[in-house]
Design a protein that fits this description.
Elements: E1 2-5, H1 9-22, E2 26-29, H2 36-49, E3 57-60, E4 62-64, H3 75-82, E5 94-95, H4 104-117, E6 123-126, E7 148-151, H5 154-160, E8 174-177, H6 180-184, E9 188-193, H7 199-207, E10 225-229, E11 244-245
Parallel strand pairs: 1-10, 1-11, 2-3, 2-6, 3-5, 6-9, 9-10
Antiparallel strand pairs: 4-8, 7-8
Helix pairs in contact: 1-2
Protein name: Glucosamine-6-phosphate deaminase
Domain Glucosamine/galactosamine-6-phosphate isomerase: 21-220
Keywords: Carbohydrate metabolism, Hydrolase
Length: 256
Amino acid sequence: MEIVITERPEIVAADIIEKYAREGKTLGLATGSTPLKTYQELIRRHKEEGLSFAQCQAFLLDEYLGLPREHEQSYYRTIRREFTDSIDIEDSAVHSPDGTAADPVAAGNRYDEAIKAAGGIDMQLLGIGTDGHIGFNEPGSSLASRTRVKTLHPQTIRDNARFFNNDESQVPHHVLTQGLGTILEAGHLLLIATGAGKSEAVAALAEGPVAAVCPASVLQLHPHATVVLDPDAAAGLKHSEYYRFAVDNKLAGQGY
């Protein structure tokens, strides 16, 4: 696992994603506040530098159960509003779990099959929750889990209430999420974390044991994982001398 500490994580992350986009690879996309600056930088590169996503496919990590796709806070709508409507990827190439399915268990199985049919995800973008979750794999999730239904932890509901007029009662309590086993099958895992509020989870991810209490710790098992942090998110690390610091927010000449 490579850990990079930089003042502008979105630049390092966008550099990595650009490499896969230029090769027409399959991208795993995340929603939430953490990747927004990275998406904005990629949109800028598309509009100003000609970066194309036309040959790519994309798969989302998760979706709320019972929320219509047209709802502004569904992840189906969110990824389009925040990213894919502003680039040249085909809308039909942007896939997400079906949160309205009558049989969500079957829908989860179909989603895993769709990822396999596309040849797998080449680069999966991730954030991390304050409790160490990735996707919506809350503490206690099986390290071998597949796309499935999960019940959100109360802390996650509190964290997400800001997207629902700060009203926890409006936040769906169940989701369809890629499992940790599904995520681990991606070719390259790219996790971004910013802010002091993530420092404890980042320390557990990077320097703690691989354990279900911190689902993100499974990145330690992956052969190609990159964790990009700002200094605040890295503040809890005890061994930062072993990690890489980006120069001018870039890692020039590196293969990631």
